[in-house]
Write a structure and sequence with these properties.
Protein name: O-methyltransferase-domain-containing protein
Structural class: alpha/beta
Number of strands: 9
Number of helices: 17
Shape: globular
Active site: 275
Pfam families: Dimerisation, Methyltransf_2
CATH superfamily of the largest domain: Vaccinia Virus protein VP39
CATH architecture of the largest domain: 3-Layer(aba) Sandwich
Distance between the termini: 66 Å
Strand content: 5-15%
Domain O-methyltransferase C-terminal: 252-347
Helix content: 40-55%
Largest sheet: 4 strands, mixed
CATH topology of the largest domain: Rossmann fold
Domain O-methyltransferase dimerisation: 52-130
Length: 373
Amino acid sequence: MSFTNLIQSLNQAASALSVPGSSNVQERNELREACQRFSACLETPVERLLRTSSGCIEPAILRLAIDIGVFSLLNEELEPDTEIDVSEIAARTKTDHGMMSRLMRFLIMLQVVDVTPQGRCKATAVTRSFKPGTIIYNHVVALSGIYLPLFGRLPTYLRENQYRPPDDAYRGLFQDGFKTDLHFFDWLDIHKQEHDAFHGMMEASASSNLVAWTQYIPREWFEQRLTPSKLADGGFTLVDTASRSSRKLERMSHNFFHKQPVRGADIYLLARILHDWPDKQAREILSNLREAMDSNSTLLVYDRVFGDQLEKVSAADAIYDAVMMAFFSSLERSEAQFRDLLSSVGLRLCNIWRGDLGSDGDKQAVLEIVREE
């Protein structure tokens, strides 16, 4: 097939595709991976380096556009489809004209803003996605305000520490990079913009998981443990970090570094918790749960679980593992690492249920854990 015919076929296929979110998740991920492999075949090593290295520039430029007020102007102050000169954008945002010209040139290159043949700027659907509270807005704020400073410091930090990964949630790259002795979550509590952006990202990420963790586990497993007599006897108690009213659940506020108040429960759950904590603190969390468990109790852990051998992983798996190290001095664990961690506090892993591909291509798992007598 000639390049001309191939280009025409690809353009036709792109035009025929529906909205990404409406397609089958697994099929969309497989198609995206195939396109990435195809693109990689066309790139030279230098072109790939230039493409990947620009990833540290784009969030900073987008954050600049947010802070200056470009998106507020285009999304809130102007009517839809309004065309506007760079000089007017500069005047209305009180920004130097030369600086605004350079900024808009970059936004046009990113296809975040459109440009007419007459050189006037115009908002697009992508522009409108940069409104406060949207996942894209939150992502840019978090990337520019937290991720970039930390990962820019990562090579120096590891070199200074003889390339040993951090292993204490209160003494790691985050504390070094932001000159604080606070845990990441405690630091967020006093930095509102980053707090709202980060938690907005996490909520959007959780809502994008099309398969709930409960669907990984066979229905029969729940039926054997949650019998009608047990449900009639007392219902459920949800022990969490914050107390909120609910007619279906009895909620109880709890710090999992303290003694677990509910003793001998049928099921305990740690959903996306342990990956936030290195082994040092994870052992404290698990030890408190073990002391509360009896011979009939089960601990369910919902987390990523890597294979024990080096293997090809999704981008989400690799990125989240790096984020765990940078933010929390922690890691996404392999099955063997989970077994070692659990056995160190008198717990035993007896089963793993693996889920289907999530929206970002990663695989989650639910671990069934019992007390080792």
